[in-house]
UniProtKB/TrEMBL annotation, chain A:
Gene Ontology terms for molecular function: phospholipid transporter activity
Keywords, alphabetical: Membrane, Transmembrane, Transmembrane helix
Organism field: Parapedobacter koreensis
A Gene Ontology cellular-component term: ATP-binding cassette (ABC) transporter complex
InterPro entries according to UniProt: Permease_MalE
Protein's UniProt name: Phospholipid/cholesterol/gamma-HCH transport system permease protein
Pfam families per the UniProt record, alphabetical: MlaE (PF02405)
TrEMBL record, chain B:
Record keywords, A-Z: ATP-binding, Nucleotide-binding, Transport
Keyword Nucleotide-binding: yes
Listed PROSITE patterns: ABC_TRANSPORTER_1, ABC_TRANSPORTER_2
Lineage of the organism: Bacteria, Pseudomonadati, Bacteroidota, Sphingobacteriia, Sphingobacteriales
Domain named ABC transporter: residues: 15-252
The protein's name: Phospholipid/cholesterol/gamma-HCH transport system ATP-binding protein
GO molecular function: ATP binding; ATP hydrolysis activity
Taxonomic source organism: Parapedobacter koreensis
InterPro entries: AAA+_ATPase (IPR003593), ABC_transporter-like_ATP-bd (IPR003439), ABC_transporter-like_CS (IPR017871), P-loop_NTPase (IPR027417)
Keyword Transport assigned: yes
Length: 253, 257
């Protein structure tokens, strides 16, 4: 029991040191712009097909599930407003973050874990390159930049999916639908989306990198790093979602 | 053939290890190790697996910190340097890893360019290409320049790994098990390459191995790590002229069985 507590405290101290090192190194030259752009491509562009599919399905399913409740009150005309608030405030950043946790977080954990195990990180260090800056800083910045962009994209695809459903069932035109969508959305809703997406992106990047960078020897360690990167980032995304919602609600009041 | 060592400057120590100890938990790997590497010397460190040979060169290159003792490399105390100073010192040390540690997402060319573009930012594209082709030619693998590490054989990977360390023109080379897992013919080629590197690039080297043929072929001097300490040192014949039960099996396994 005491040993478990001790181990947890040491792990927390290591995480704290890792995050602090990120903040120290992110502002110090040299800057690895080329690697950051490459990672943005890997994180963002290569996630587009999965994000498109998930965002579209979320929009369609959410609309179809919400319709019967509103229909009971004859309020299906409120569907666009309801959908836009739900997608922009909550679903777009959350769905994007969960997909990215699984796809990007595990990829980062496994890639860095395997580099650690095969001494590629040590090789970088002895050849006069700062592996933390090259591998960790670039990946965390890439996820922090890409996830907000992906979240906006998910919102757009989700709203389009919802439009198809609304158009088919309520005969609402494209223009009327999007007028209602944007009328319902406030600046604080957009701010909430950006804030969540930035925090989620940073979390996915830093958790994946931490797990990979500290992976223990052997292929089992690589698997564990990838697995924990997904589990921990998903857990933290939900915790952060709750906290940010409370903050935004307080700001709204 | 055992080397003569006529090129060694015994007045200049490029690495001095004094009373260094290193433990991992309850496992006391090194217990007060002393070691000197002279300018131009090829020093072989022999020892059984798990006796701390690789730990020693990781301590020398600053990848690990000693629990006790001091390590001086090219006149600088490794354990007292900050991250930036250590990075500068490492440019003078080439480290050839046991499994080559090639970046498997990059081609051979990109592997070799990687340390160069980060540490010599003033170089033009043409100069970088020239340097890369020059060291690849030196290890006889110019034709693999656009291949991925996964397309290379074990021996080729070792050679590319050595080429990658040579590209920064290091003064010291640290080889971790250079012949491990290779067939006898490739071992002979790698041993020849280590000697060629010493002659062409005027390096001083520490070679970690448990392959006696390698030790005999490349070593100007041999030290043997026993129970966390260097208890025997000298020429190949001096090392094995003993009845020590911890030493004899090495010779017997390599040359009798």
């Amino acid at each position: 029991m005491i040993k478990n507590i001790q181990r947890t405290l040491i792990e927390l101290a290591n995480i704290h040191r890792f995050v602090m090192r990120f903040y120290r190194e992110v502002f110090m030259p040299p800057y690895e712009f080329k690697e950051i752009i490459r990672q943005c491509y890997v994180v963002g562009w290569k996630s587009l097909p999965l994000i498109s599919l998930t965002g579209f399905i979320t929009g369609v399913v959410f609309t179809n599930q919400s319709r019967p409740s509103l229909a009971e009150f004859g309020a299906t005309s409120w569907l666009p407003a309801l959908i836009s608030i739900a997608i922009i405030r909550a679903l777009a950043p959350l769905v994007t973050a969960l997909i990215a946790s699984g796809k990007v977080g595990s990829q980062i954990g496994a890639e860095l874990g395997s580099m650690k195990v095969t001494e590629q990180i040590d090789a970088m260090e002895v050849s006069g390159t700062n592996p933390f800056k090259f591998l960790v800083v670039s990946r965390v910045l890439a996820t922090t930049i890409s996830i907000p962009i992906l979240s906006f994209y998910t919102a757009a695809v989700g709203l389009f999916g919802a439009f198809l459903s609304v158009n088919q069932n309520e005969n609402t035109s494209f223009r009327v639908y999007f007028d209602q969508v944007f009328d319902a959305v406030t600046f604080l809703d957009m701010f909430s989306l950006v804030l969540k997406a930035v925090v989620f992106g940073f979390t996915i990047g830093i958790v994946g990198c931490y797990q990979g960078y500290h992976s223990s020897k052997g292929t089992e360690g690589v698997g564990r790093a990838a697995n924990w990167a997904v589990v921990m980032s998903m857990f933290l995304v939900f915790v952060e979602e709750i906290l940010i919602v409370q903050i935004i609600q307080a700001m709204r009041a | 053939m055992l080397k003569t060592g006529g090129h060694i400057d015994y007045q200049t120590e490029v690495i001095t290890v004094r009373d260094v100890s290193k433990s991992f938990g309850e496992n006391h790997v090194l217990r007060g190790v002393d070691l000197k590497l002279y300018n131009g010397e090829n020093l072989v460190v022999l020892g059984r697996s798990g006796t701390g040979k690789s730990v020693l060169i990781k301590l020398i290159s600053g990848l690990l910190r000693p629990d006790m003792g001091t390590i001086e490399v090219l006149g600088e105390h490794v354990d007292e340097l900050n991250e930036k100073e250590l990075q500068q010192l490492r440019l003078k040390i080439g480290f050839s890893f046991q499994n080559s540690a090639l970046y498997d997402s990059m081609t051979v060319r990109e592997n070799l360019e990687f340390p160069l573009v980060r540490n010599k930012r003033h170089l033009s594209r043409a100069e970088i290409d020239h340097e890369v082709e020059d060291v690849l030619d030196a290890v006889g693998l110019l034709h693999t320049i656009n291949q991925m590490p996964s397309e290379l054989s074990g021996g080729q990977r070792k050679r590319v790994g050595i080429a990658r360390t040579l590209i920064l023109r290091p003064e010291i080379m640290l080889y971790d098990e250079p012949t491990a897992g290779l067939d006898p013919i490739t071992c002979i080629e790698i041993n020849g390459l280590i000697n060629e590197v010493q002659e062409k690039y005027k390096t001083s080297s520490i070679i970690i191995t448990h392959d006696l043929a390698c030790a005999k072929s490349v070593g100007d001097r041999i030290v043997m790590l026993l129970d966390g300490k260097f208890e025997r040192q000298g020429s190949f014949d001096e090392i094995f002229d003993t009845n020590d039960e911890r030493v004899k099996p090495f010779y017997d396994y390599n040359f009798i069985t």
